[in-house]
Each structure stands twice: as C-alpha cells, then as structure tokens.
Write a structure and sequence with these properties.
Length: about 270
C-alpha cells in the first residue's frame, strides 16, 4: 500500500517533545558533518588524502564562487561560514536519502508502520526556519548598513510629502510632489510585500521540489518497482544538488543586496 504523508511522522517522545523521522535524520546528518569536518581539520596533511582533497576542493571553489557574487573579499569572509554550512546541510540532507535500504527501516506504532528515516527537506517546518534565519540575517545586515531610520525609510518614504508641504510654505503648490509622495509610499509597501514574499518563494521552492521528487519516486516504485523508477531517481538526484545550490545562492544574494549602498545614499553622504 502506498502511503505518502505531507507531515513528518512522530517516532517517539522525549520529555513530551515529539521526535519525528525528519528530526532524527537532521540530528544524524548534523553530527556526521561536524565529526567529519573536525576530524579532517585536525588531521590536515601536506599531501592530502581523498577525503581531505575533496573537502578542500569543495571549500575553495565555493569560496571563489561566493567572492564573485559578493564582489568583496571582506563580505565573503563574513558570509562564507553561514552560506557554506547551509549549502552542505541541504545538499547532504538531499543526497543521503538516496542511500539504499532506508525505506526498509521502520517501526511499529499504533497508527501502523512508520518509516524511521525521511528526507529532511520534505519537512516544511525545517525549511521555513532556515528561510527565516536567512531573511532575518539580510534584514539585520540592512539595518547595520543603512541605519534604523534608513532601513525604515526604505518601506515608509515620506520625502515626497515633505517636499510638497515645504513647497506650500514657500508659496508654491506643486501637486507633482504630492503624486511623487503617494508613489514613493506605494513602492515602499511593495518593497515590504516583497520581503515577505521572499520567505514564501524561497521556502516553497525547496520544499515543493524535494517533496514532489519524493512523491513521484514513491509512486513509480509502487507502480513499477524495477527499471521504470530509475530515470526519476536520476532526476531526483539532479534536483537534490540544484535545489541546495539555488537555496544557498539566493540567500547569499539577498544578504549581499541588503549590504549594498544605493547611489542616492552615496550622493547624500557626499553632500554632507
């Protein structure tokens, strides 16, 4: 019987806290990544072995790529640990679900058989939290770069209204400034909506692709369990790599854009 569940299944409880199959997989992957990287870092050799060579290549190429995106060595050094960790975590979370034999590991519960492991990126709660961390980091960077008032002014721009009332006191009524004020205010609201939309689009892109891949593969395995699912497996493998890359790069771009100083701000600082 084919059983596809949108929500992760609860395996057991620890002090009333539910431990789901995706959470169990998350803990295992996190511990494994930390152990491997610490082990390699403490045993660095002048002539690297295969594992050290692979990690060094991955780190170096990722750093160089990030440098081309940020355009600043300083920004890259600050952002690289966060973005690279995000990429590795998502990539391994996607790829390790392709290990054979996972579906055979199940436990019996009152509601039936529950799989012990499940793709962590098919859990929208985890993806939503990761997305929030990335977007909130971008907002913090924007506040640090532009200042609190400059950040708020991006969404609530009253300069047009200020210039309009200023023109009235000067004996001139310029309705074009009033129209510009409403336009600036509307664009500010759209910017605010855009920031919220980033959370939805970024999280649903990763979740939708990975959950769809899991469902399609399960359906094909159920209908034709031999050679027919192979193309879908390869497609899922490609999706796993691409979506990890896209999520990390988009997060990097959002943070980099938040750290950019616009031309009007540069001109304003030059006149002071």
């Amino acid at each position: 019987m084919l059983n596809v569940s949108l929500a992760p299944r609860v395996l057991f409880y620890i002090a009333g806290f539910p431990v789901t199959n995706t959470l169990l997989w998350t803990v295992i992957i996190s511990i494994a990544v930390m152990v491997v990287f610490v082990w390699v870092a403490r045993r660095m050799k002048k002539v690297p072995g295969p594992l050290q060579n692979l990690i060094e290549l991955l780190v170096e190429e990722s750093y160089n790529f990030m440098n081309t995106v940020t355009g600043s060595e300083k920004k890259t050094r600050r952002l690289f640990p966060f973005i690279f960790t995000l990429f590795i975590f998502i990539l391994l979370g996607n790829l390790l679900t392709f290990l054979p034999g996972q579906s055979a590991l199940t436990i019996e519960k009152a509601g039936g058989v529950v799989p012990l492991f499940r793709s962590i990126m098919s859990d929208y709660g985890l993806i939503f939290v990761m997305t929030l961390i990335g977007i909130i980091t971008a907002q913090i960077v924007a506040i640090a770069v532009h200042g609190p008032f400059g950040y708020i002014g991006k969404f609530i721009n009253l300069k047009g209204f200020k210039d309009f009332f200023k023109s009235i006191f000067q004996g001139q009524v310029k309705f074009s400034l009033l129209g510009q004020g409403f336009l600036d205010l509307f664009l500010g609201v759209m910017d605010l909506v855009g920031e919220v939309a980033k959370i939805v689009s970024l999280s649903f892109r990763l979740f939708g692709n990975m959950f769809a891949s899991e469902v399609i593969t399960s359906v094909m395995l159920f209908l034709a369990p031999f050679f027919v699912p192979l193309p879908f497996k390869f497609l899922g493998l490609l999706t796993a790599v691409v979506q990890a890359f896209v999520f990390a790069v988009l997060t990097l771009i959002y943070i980099t854009m938040a750290s950019e100083i616009e031309e009007d701000e540069i001109a304003e600082e030059a006149t002071i």
